[in-house]
Amino acid sequence: MKEIFVDIERCTACKACEIACAVEHSTSKELFGAVFERPAPQKRVHVEPAYAYAYPVRCLHCGDAPCIAACPNGAMSRDSDSGAVVVNEDRCQGCFMCAMVCPFGAISAHPGKRVAVKCDRCTDRQKRGQQPACVDACPTHALQFGDEEDLMKEKRLSTAARVAQAVSGAVVPQPGSTPLDTLRSLRGR
Amino acid sequence: MSREMMDVASEALRDRAEELGIETGMDRLESQEPQCGFGQLGTCCRICYMGPCRIDPFATDGSSRGVCGATADVIATRNLLREATGGAASHLGHARHVALTLREAIRGSAPYGIADRGKLIAVAGGLGIATDGKSDNEIAEEVVGKALEDFARQDGEPGNWLKLHTPQKEFDMWRDLGLVVSNVHNEIEEAMHRTSGGNDADPVNLLLGTLRMGIADGTGLAMATDLQDIMFGTPQVRGVEANVGVLEAGRVNLAMHGHNPVLSEKILEWSAKLDGEARAAGADGINVVGVCCTGNELTMRHGVPMAAHNLQSELLLVTGAVDAMVVDVQCIWPGTVKVAECFDTKVITTVANVKIPGAMHVPFEAEHADEAAEKIVRTAIEAFVARKGKDVEIPQEKASGLAGFSVEAIVGVLSKIDPEDPLKPVIDNIVAGNIYGAVAFAGCPNPKIRSSAMTETMAKELLANNILIVTTGCTAHILAQAGMMSPDATEKYCGEGLKAVLTALGGAAGLDGPLPPVWHMGSCVDNSRIVTLLGALASKLDVKISQLPVAGSAPELVQEKAISIGSWLLALGITVHLAPAPHILGSPVATKVLTEDLEGITGGRAYVEYDPVKAAAGLLAHIAGKRAALGI
Description:
The structure holds two protein chains of two kinds. Chain A is globular and about 60 Å long. Chain A has one domain (2-148): Alpha-Beta Plaits, CATH 3.30.70.20. In chain A, a hairpin with a 6-residue loop joins β4 (76-78) and β5 (85-87). In chain A, the strands form four sheets. A two-stranded antiparallel sheet of chain A has the order 1-8. Helix content of chain A is 33%, strand content 16%. Chain A is built from eight helices and eight strands; from the N terminus they run βααββαββαββααβαα. By secondary structure, chain B is α/β, with parallel strands linked by helices. Chain B has four domains: 8-54, no CATH class; 72-232, Up-down Bundle (Substrate Binding Domain Of Dnak, Chain:A, Domain 2), CATH 1.20.1270.30; 244-387, Rossmann fold (3-Layer(aba) Sandwich); 406-630, 3-Layer(aba) Sandwich (Rossmann fold). Chain B contains 26 helices and 16 strands. In chain B, strands 6-5-4-7-8-9 form a six-stranded parallel beta sheet. In chain B, α19 (454-464) packs parallel to α26. The relative contact order of chain B is 0.13. At the A-B interface, β2 and α8 of A face α3 of B.
């Protein structure tokens, strides 16, 4: 199964993911067409502030998804091919029970139609062998896409390296070593 | 994460705005957050159409480059020079406009005159113009000629106003560094050229370009101040009130917002002339109040109340009590028009290239200044008639204090102690440590750090340590509103040494109490007054400005103009504190040169600190170092 992981240290809050997401969910699927579409295409990822950091909030496509359980109409379901939690707009009655029970705030409202709008993990793009649009757009690789086992393995390897470096006394990159770290420490929020 | 603005009047008006469903800058900041790291670091480049390019701030080995090969250093230093150019263009445009207005006035085609003959003679003398046997208009014609020459000469000779206002030691330093500016318009052209695609890619060279742009900016500041003093009078110390509470429900409230006194002086004049019409319309007269820097101009010369700093420009309108907000150039938020639409308030733009949809536009050209001013004041009276009897909410908060501390006014006060050598008492007290040093506060209120009361907190920390504060621009509004321009503030905030000096000066000046501990020296172009004062002190001591126990601070940096002013101060050797960080941190070269290496070149450096207490401590340490180096 493919997953998107977020490295919050690397998020610069440029919101390239937000724009790419809206374009991907537009009719024209290209920026200069999408900006003229009405209703305006909706983003499904929201970069939100927290202290001196920023975090792209999006659907995590939970295994036991409360939004699916809460939906009274069966509008929220799991795509059998991709495993993504998707919303069927035709069945959505716009009650936002899904948004209410979502632990992450990952579901938003369509401004014109009163239906739930959420990340579909770019099911169409994945079928074409592409990464989700947000991952493709991220200039700092704060968003990473891959097999969940690979992503978790990477985390385990970096943990192992950190422990080994601590034991061996090898040089470990310290926080504050990038310009963004400097900015965060100055802002002190 | 709702932020506070740290003053009762602003918070009351924010509550009213929320009740009425009116959006203001503080709300919009929240919707803008988090803000893009590339922009904050200065590493986004949009100057060509192979881009836009961004440099990955995590590729600290320099491997991330733009399409053309530009590094973070190239991109950030190019961007910084363009910011400084925007600032300098603003001040130079302002100065040129004033020069042209003075020329029209003396040629009889614009209704302005010469208010301060002494200043005219002094400036002419400084420029090397012989004045004997010439009429004021003849002298002024030559002064204007010298001013316009700074925008036109092609001979590479040093600019007239640069020579007029640069002490010899700093002039020599700039000559050795290749920083002497000749024609200020050429500087703008060359800066835009060298930062355009495929030109200067040497970050250090580009940083030197930013210092040059700062020096060009200094020309504009000094020229504007000088010519405005000639036309409208040199400020003298006078009482003033500050904060939104200066509005009066029963009067025609006419708020002047922007920068150029050529407009605001005329509006003030016509408000007096049309007072009877306002009374006939049921008002208790016309109440002209100042916002932002044109407010400072009116305050310095006429004691006009200081109604609002820039961040309060929308909130002032939320009262519903402003009948007209008349604007010219710079720092005019488009958002003011959206607020005005909720009331009978007219926002009136006056400059051809500063228009806002939804605002009324009354073209204001010097030759038709009277007609335009008359029309604007009548519009305000009509708006009052429409507003009369409707609900308004004016928070009663206001503080009183003294303003008008031009160099001439300061010297005037000091002359009462020592007529032969007016600066001596100041120097003696600096040497004795009663005045431990001085810090100049300039710039704006920034909504991103307003909630730490950055400016007031720093000021209180510094005063307690016997640091005298001089201020201009919107930081002057903040400090006036905080009551720090009143004689009481000397008792309340100052260390013992500074308190004693200010008490003695107040007595000499014939005041009931001490002089205030924060001296209002004017608008943002009047940062020139601060440099003139520092130059006089340094020359008297026969040291460089960089050796003085002083510093500058833009504690709540907002505008490109602060970047160009700051660059001038850095070129003069003055250490400048800034918060938020300028858009350079993505460039290791710019960061190192501006915060460290520059001190070995001009003597000044940039210092970034967001915490007000730590920032004050940092400036104190800097001043202590300067004192130690002087052996005092």
